[in-house]
Every structure is written in structure tokens, then in C-alpha cells.
Amino acid sequence: MNGPDQKGRAMPESTVRRPLIVPSVLPADFARLGEEVRDLCAAGVDRIQWDVMDGVFVPNLTFGPDVIASARSHSTVGFEAHLMVVNPDELLTEYIDAGCELIIVHAEACTHLHRTLARIRDLGARSGVALNPHTPAETVAHVLAETDLVLAMTVNPGFGGQAYIPAVEPKIAQLRRMIDESGRSIELEVDGGINADTIGGAAVAGAGVFISGSWMYGYPEGKAAAVKRLREAATIGALR
Questions:
Q1: Which residues are catalytic?
Q2: Quick one: pLDDT at residue 9?
Q3: Whole-prediction pTM value?
């Protein structure tokens, strides 16, 4: 698939897949989020992910919709909200209204996953479904028609700075096959421990969208250089 258009929507499939680099703002300085968002856009990222945590589904607490809304005018790229919460259906409208064009919910948190994904689309956003490392790929087999993105977690969600779990790569490859066989334009995203050394394995397995947080923020040459290095490493990996 090509990169997203200006509204963050997936473009038609092509023979060349440009890796999409999406930073998590979890390591950002929360006191200067607007400036942090502008810096990320200037670094050449493809969109920005907001890790929304409720302290129940995962131990941490993070961004409410008002915080995201306050940062939206500072961005030239799309926002995605990764809802790590126990009741995502109750929050969909708030995060879409805050400016998130893509809403990702966890399969483990949705009693009626098909209905939740369909409602996200009905509300005017793109729909995504995330799978924790232990959750089988088959979980999303019957909701691909309602899905714009599948996120394979390569760490257990809840905290930044965790080590990449390479054992998830066979599942990424399985998801890639499922998506390709469906004939649908669905993005395959990975999140957790992504850096210049691990991104290649995820790309080889078939991922096309890569979340990076702690590593990107800590890169000594700055965020723009980090984005460039990640994109190059993912491209080389995808060609293997």
C-alpha cells in the first residue's frame, strides 16, 4: 500500500510499499505538547499516535481528548488514537471530535468487535484493531471488512521503553497473508520496541507502519535523522 493521503486515509495498493513512520508522543514533554507535535511534523513523520490509557486495561494513565484537541492545530499530519481502555465504545466520539482520524481499539477489550469497528467508520473515522502479543491473528479474520488497520503489538501495552518481542513476527506474517488474501487495502502496523535494529524483522514479516517512541526521542542525531534511519531500515527489511 502507498502512504496515506492528507486526511490519513490509506491509498491504493501498489508494487512499492513506502514504510510509514509514526511516533508515539508518550515520551514527549507533556508541558510543551504543541511544540513537540510541530517538531515531529518537521521531522517528516507520516502521522502521530496518541497512546490513550485508562489505568484499568493497562496500568498507566495518559491523554484525555481535551489534551489531544489542544495539540491538533499544531500538526500537519493525521492523528491516530490507540485506545488501551476497557470501554472503548464510550470514548469513540470524544476522540474523533478531538481530531483523531484513525481510532484503534483492542480486540481484547471489545465484546462486539464487529459493531465497534463499524461504529468508528459511521462516526467518520478510520477503524483499527490491535492485538496483544498473545492474541491469535485469527481473532480479526471475520472483521477485516470493517477494518482499515491491524496493529500487532510487539510488546505488552502500558509502558514505553519495553524490549521488542521477536516471537510476534510469525503472527505479523500470518496477518500479512490474511490481509493480502482479503484483497482489501488494510494497513498492518507494529508497535513496541521499534528501533533501527528491530524494524527490519517486522518489515520482513510484512508490517508497513511502524510506531516508535522512546528510541526516536532518544536518538542522538535528532528526530529527523531517526525517522530517516527507521525508514531506510524498514525499506531494506521489506526487500529481503
A1: 51, 191
A2: 40
A3: 0.91
